[in-house]
């Protein structure tokens, strides 16, 4: 197993992140759009709209996670939405996803958040097993609804 380094991404990391982000979107059946991925990530970072963590395995970009700030009105506190988590296929099974999840939790605690939340596909059993191993609890009390605009 190689050496994993996780760091808070900066604007200079967009080139490395864009390919991973494009592959992540393709995993969710979106068409490849590398220029769009680059633009989207660049905007999030330049506007301070998300926190992105880049995982490197033996010095090579291997995965990322992206957190969006939000709040819980009932709890009157900050939360983060862990919207994206992706590990390149060749880097899977080496602890990269676990390291990213732990870094995201560390970041959330450091920012005074009371929790992280995420959604995953109902058939993404590999990810579900990882989340549960890392102490995430499945929410059986609430349903998620969407309204396309």
What does this protein look like?
With 149 residues, this protein is α+β, with helices and mostly antiparallel strands. It has a single domain (4-133), classed as 3-Layer(aba) Sandwich (Aminopeptidase). The protein contains four helices and five strands; from the N terminus they run E-H-H-E-E-E-H-E-H. Strands 1-2-3-4-5 form a five-stranded mixed β-sheet, sandwiched between helices. The mean pLDDT is 95.
Please describe the structure with a list of short key phrases separated by commas or semicolons.
alpha+beta; Aminopeptidase; globular; 149 residues; 26% strand
Structural class: alpha+beta
Overall CATH architecture: 3-Layer(aba) Sandwich
- The rounded distance between the terminal residues' Cα atoms is 45 Å
Overall average residue pLDDT: 95
Percent strand equals 25-35%
Q: Reading side by side through the largest sheet, how are the strands ordered? A: 1-2-3-4-5
Number of strands: 5
Q: Helix and strand succession?
A: EHHEEEHEH
Q: Which percent bin holds the helix content?
A: 25-40%
For the biggest sheet, the summary is: 5 strands, mixed
Approximate shape:
globular
Please give the structural blueprint:
Layout: E1 4-8, H1 14-27, H2 34-47, E2 51-57, E3 60-72, E4 77-87, H3 96-110, E5 115-117, H4 125-133
Parallel strand pairs: 4-5
Antiparallel strand pairs: 1-2, 2-3, 3-4
């Amino acid at each position: 197993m190689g050496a994993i380094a996780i760091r808070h991404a900066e604007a200079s990391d967009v080139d490395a992140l864009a390919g991973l982000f494009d592959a992540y979107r393709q995993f969710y059946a979106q068409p490849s759009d590398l220029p769009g991925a680059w633009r989207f990530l660049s905007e999030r970072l330049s506007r301070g709209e998300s926190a992105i963590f880049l995982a490197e395995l033996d010095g090579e970009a291997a995965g990322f996670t992206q957190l969006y700030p939000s709040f819980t009105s009932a709890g009157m506190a900050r939360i983060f939405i862990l919207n994206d988590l992706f590990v390149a296929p060749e880097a899977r099974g080496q602890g990269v996803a676990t390291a990213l999840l732990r870094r995201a939790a560390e970041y959330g605690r450091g920012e005074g958040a009371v929790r992280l939340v995420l959604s995953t596909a109902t058939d993404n059993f590999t990810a579900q097993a990882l989340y549960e191993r890392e102490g995430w609890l499945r929410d059986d009390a609430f349903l998620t609804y969407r309204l396309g605009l």
